[in-house]
Amino acid sequence: MSDDEHTFDGAGDAGASLTFPQQAGTIRKGAFIVIKGRPCKVAEVSTSKTGKHGHAKCNFVGIDIFNGRKLEDIVPSSHNSEVPHVKRTDYQLMDITDDGYTGLLTDSGDMRDDLKLPTHDDELAQKLKADFAAGKELVVTVLSAMGEEQINAIKDISAK
C-alpha cells in the first residue's frame, strides 16, 4: 500500500472525552466535578471516616456552572469521579440582537452569533445590556464544558 491510497478528510472529532477521571479524595473546593451528569464547581467538600472495613467518603456540594443549581454527591474517596474539561474563552462583544443573541468577535477576527445572553443570571444579562447600550467596549468570558457553553462574566475594556 502506498501513502496516496489513504485519504483523511478531517471531518470527525479526535475522540476527546468530555470528562476525565480523578480520584475523589484529591478533588478540592473550587475545582470542577460532574454531579448527576452536570458540570459543577465544588462549593464544599467534607470527608467522613467510616467503620472498620469501610471507605472514607467524600461529600461534594457543587454549583452547576450553567444554571446555578446546587447539587450534592457522596463518593468513596478512593474511587474515581468524573471531572469535566472546562474551557474559558474571551470574546469582544460587538452586538446584542432583539431576541437576545450576541455578536462576538473571536481572536482570529471571525464573528460568532450563536450564543444567547445568560438565562440563569438575570443580573449579569441586565448589566451586559446596560453597559452595551451605554457604548462601553466589553469583553465577555464564555465557559464551555460537556457540549454546553454560556457567557458567565463581562469585563469593561473602554479607555478610561
Summarize this structure as a short list of keywords or feature phrases.
mainly beta; five-stranded antiparallel β-sheet; OB fold (Dihydrolipoamide Acetyltransferase, E2P); SH3 type barrels; Translation_prot_SH3-like_sf; ribosome binding; hypusine; 2 domains; 160 residues; four-stranded antiparallel β-sheet; protein biosynthesis; 1 helix
What does this structure look like?
The structure is a single chain. Helix content is 8%, strand content 49%. It has 160 residues and is mainly β. The protein has two domains: 19-84, SH3 type barrels (Roll); 87-156, Nucleic acid-binding proteins (OB fold (Dihydrolipoamide Acetyltransferase, E2P)), CATH 2.40.50.140. A five-stranded antiparallel sheet has the order 9-8-7-10-11, with helices on one face. Strands 2-3-4-5 form a four-stranded antiparallel sheet, with no helix packed on it. The chain has a two-stranded antiparallel sheet with strand order 1-6. The longest helix has 12 residues, at 122-133. It is elongated and about 65 Å long. GO terms for molecular function: ribosome binding; RNA binding; translation elongation factor activity; translation initiation factor activity. Residues 85-155 form the Translation initiation factor 5A C-terminal domain. This is Eukaryotic translation initiation factor 5A.
